[in-house]
TrEMBL record:
Its EC number is 2.7.13.3. This is histidine kinase. It is found in: Cell membrane. It is a multi-pass membrane protein. Residues 258-477 form the Histidine kinase domain. It holds the Pfam family HAMP. InterPro entries: HAMP_dom (IPR003660), HATPase_C_sf (IPR036890), HATPase_dom (IPR003594), His_kinase_dom (IPR005467), HisK_dim/P_dom (IPR003661), HisK_dim/P_sf (IPR036097), Sensor-like_sf (IPR029151), Sensor_HK_Regulatory (IPR050736). Keywords: ATP-binding, Cell membrane, Kinase, Membrane, Nucleotide-binding, Phosphoprotein, Transferase, Transmembrane, Transmembrane helix, Two-component regulatory system. Residues 191-243 form the HAMP domain. Its main location: membrane. The chain crosses the membrane at residues 13-36, 170-191. GO terms for molecular function: ATP binding.
Length: 492
């Protein structure tokens, strides 16, 4: 495992953990040292008081120090490893456990004498010129209420200092081990945090330049894992939004290009005719023909603008339908009568098949008429010396009215049948020039209107044989809807 010391998270975690462990163990060591020293001194003092009382039990019947008295003191000196002094009521040292007895004749502190004569043990420290101190205690010398003086025990503090030193050394080693352990733990924790953060940083850098292919692979279930999951979800959303944006931009580009193309042709034609008229290049008798062409081109541009407006409203869900019960048979009869003159000019006959049940659709009458108007107009446009058949029938099992517009025209190739619903798409392959000129928006509007009615539309076609468009519109149910029946034969 490689850890970069320049990473701020690693440095902060290592520093904070090591400093915390170091300060904590140092504080604990100091406290333990102080309390341990007091504990050892108190324990030693209590032990020495018990030893001094044992000495008193042995000599309490002797009021004058003799040879046997001194032998007992030397015995206890060796047994307890402590020097023993005996002092009288005035605090004068009368004998000691040492052979040289250099301290005989000296006096003990007045405060110690006073405390001992009151029946209380006294405790104090002496240095006596040595680097190591001496712990001293004094207890009364006597029997019952008769006090002859006091008994003093001196014990060096060497053993206690060594014990405290060993304790401090142990605390030091524990501190060093704690620092090493905290370094290892902090290193692992910082690595477990910085590694996923590096992945997140890498993914964020790619997102910043528009690359949404990177995914963060983190299996942990903690906050960082949740953050990685959130970022992955965000990247997916950004990728989807970016794709939709690019598709939208492409659609906008195609839309503007198509609109420009559709408008350029009639505008160019009208500009040429107007310049010819302005320059007097057209004879007086031929002007009416050119005026008629320009009027037709103007009407074509108006229809194009109307179609674009309708299509944009449909795609933006800005059209509200007026739901009524519509007599579909009557509507088809009306449109058949409307397009019959144009069909006759092409040698085509329109047949409107009657249905005894006269099915009723649940639809907006104006928009439904717009659907059939576009379908019949296309059938008439691409059918010559043929027939067009209009038929409507109720399909209760599917809950819809099935309307078919069938023609014996030039047909649509299989590869084009899936594209005819796209905006500005024109089936130009294999068609004579006289069939060109539509905007390519009619079927796109038809599909949007059918879907707005919660219906469906499909086409079946073969080249040279003809086409059949099938439209399914929800069937009107009088038990569910209470709306007036509209007979389109009586409208307008």
């Amino acid at each position: 495992m490689y850890l970069n010391p320049n990473k701020s998270i690693l440095r902060k975690m290592l520093t904070s953990s090591i400093v915390t462990v170091l300060l904590g163990l140092c504080a604990v060591g100091i406290v333990i040292s102080l309390f341990a020293k007091d504990y050892i001194v108190n324990s030693k003092s209590n032990e020495m008081i018990r030893q001094a009382k044992q000495v008193n039990l042995a000599i309490q019947n002797q009021t004058e120090p003799n040879d046997r008295f001194k032998e007992q003191l030397r015995f206890f000196d060796q047994a307890f490893d402590s020097r023993i002094w005996i002092f009288d009521l005035n605090g004068n040292i009368v004998t000691t456990s040492s052979k040289d007895e250099v301290n005989v004749g000296k006096t003990v502190s007045t405060e110690v004498v006073k405390q001992v004569l009151n029946g209380e043990p006294a405790i104090w420290n002496l240095s006596e010129g040595s680097k190591e101190g001496m712990l001293s205690i004094a207890v009364p010398w006597g029997k019952d209420n008769d006090v002859y003086g006091g008994i003093v025990l001196h014990s060096p503090l060497k053993g206690m200092n060594e014990t405290i030193a060993q304790l401090r050394e142990t605390i030091l080693w524990v501190t060093l081990l704690g620092i090493f352990f905290s370094f290892g733990v902090s290193s692992y924790l910082s690595w477990s945090i910085t590694r996923p953060i590096q992945q997140i940083d890498k993914a964020a850098a790619k997102i910043a330049v528009g690359d949404y292919s990177e995914r963060i692979q983190i299996d942990s279930k903690d906050e960082i894992g949740e953050l990685a999951t959130t970022i992955n979800h965000m990247v997916e959303q950004l990728a989807r939004v970016d794709l939709e944006k690019r598709q939208l931009n492409q659609l906008r580009h195609d839309f503007l290009a198509n609109v420009s193309h559709e408008l350029r042709t009639p505008l160019t034609a009208m500009q040429g005719f107007l310049e010819a008229l302005q320059d007097g290049l057209i004879e007086e008798g031929a002007r009416e023909k050119y005026y008629e062409i320009m009027v037709n081109e103007t009407l074509h541009m108006n229809r194009l603008v109307d179609d674009i407006t309708d299509l944009m409203k449909l795609e933006n869900k800005e059209i509200d339908l007026v739901w009524l019960a519509v007599d579909v048979q009557a509507m088809l009869s009306k449109l058949s009568f409307k397009f019959q003159p144009e069909a006759e000019l092409r040698g085509t006959v329109i047949h409107c098949l009657e249905d005894e049940n006269s099915p009723q659709a649940h639809a907006d009458p104006d928009r439904l008429e717009q659907i059939f108007n576009n379908l019949i107009k296309n059938a008439v446009k691409f059918t010559e010396n043929g027939t067009i058949e209009l038929k409507a029938m109720a399909v209760p099992s599917e809950g819809c009215v099935l309307i078919t517009v069938t023609d014996t025209g030039i047909g649509i190739s299989p590869e084009d049948q899936g594209l005819i619903w796209e905006r500005f798409f024109k089936v130009e392959r294999g068609r004579p020039v006289k069939h060109k000129g539509s905007s390519g928006l009619g079927l796109a509007i038809v599909r949007e209107l059918v879907e707005l009615h919660n219906g469906s539309i499909r086409v079946r076609s073969e080249l040279g044989i003809g086409s059949a468009f099938e439209v399914r519109i929800p069937l009107y149910d009088s038990r569910q809807y209470v709306r007036p029946l509209v007979n389109l034969a009586d409208v307008g």
